[in-house]
Design brief:
single chain, 82% helix, 0% strand, globular
């Protein structure tokens, strides 16, 4: 009987360990899907590459590109957040961040005569929203997780990037196109690296 009870307890601990592992993965992903995270990273990289390859882009084209990027990225976060269970710790973060990112994209399209400074502010706000969401997610994972530190670093980079754009708006958006492109490429590559780290850590 003792052996049977020990075996049952061991199976229970293993099941709980697998559940906690899956929950940690969903928390890190925000929205629980490595495919979606890779898709979001590829969209981010594509946006950055376009900006870096086209530094002399016009304001009107940049508005369209950023609006489309913000809508797609926000929709991916929001949709997968809605698919998560109500008890998932990352669900509120994903819903709020996704909704705000979509709102930024909508404002970009519907605001007639959007100026360079206003677009710069929108880009900065989006980066700060994503950064805060990643910092909150990292905090919920705990400081003993190496991946939490990686996610926190990404969040700090995004928040700092957005804050710098707000502090120095006089530099001009079109003059910062290459810098914005480089930032988005780095963040996109970091998103793919996150998937790889998760595959190694939680395989």
């Amino acid at each position: 009987r003792r052996d049977s009870a020990s075996g049952t307890g061991g199976m229970h601990l293993k099941r709980r360990s697998r559940w906690l592992r899956r929950r940690n993965v969903r928390t890190i992903m925000w929205f629980g899907s490595s495919r979606t995270l890779i898709l979001r990273a590829l969209v981010t990289i594509a946006f950055g590459v376009l900006l870096m390859a086209w530094p002399a882009i016009s304001l009107s084209v940049l508005i369209l590109l950023f609006g489309a990027f913000a809508l797609v990225d926000g929709a991916l976060i929001l949709t997968m957040g809605l698919r998560m269970g109500s008890r998932e710790p990352a669900r509120p973060v994903a819903l709020i961040a996704g909704a705000l990112a979509v709102l930024v994209g909508v404002v970009t399209f519907v605001w007639p005569g959007l100026t360079e400074v206003v677009l710069l502010v929108l880009i900065a706000l989006r980066a700060m929203i994503i950064g805060i969401a990643e910092l909150i997610t990292a905090g919920r994972m705990g400081r003993h997780s190496s991946i939490a530190w990686f996610l926190a670093a990404l969040g700090l980079v995004s928040f700092a990037f957005g804050a710098l754009l707000l502090v120095y708006p006089g530099a001009g958006l079109l003059a910062l196109v290459w810098v914005i492109g480089l930032y988005t490429v780095v963040i996109g590559c970091a998103g793919i690296a996150r998937v790889w780290l998760l595959a190694v850590r939680y395989a």
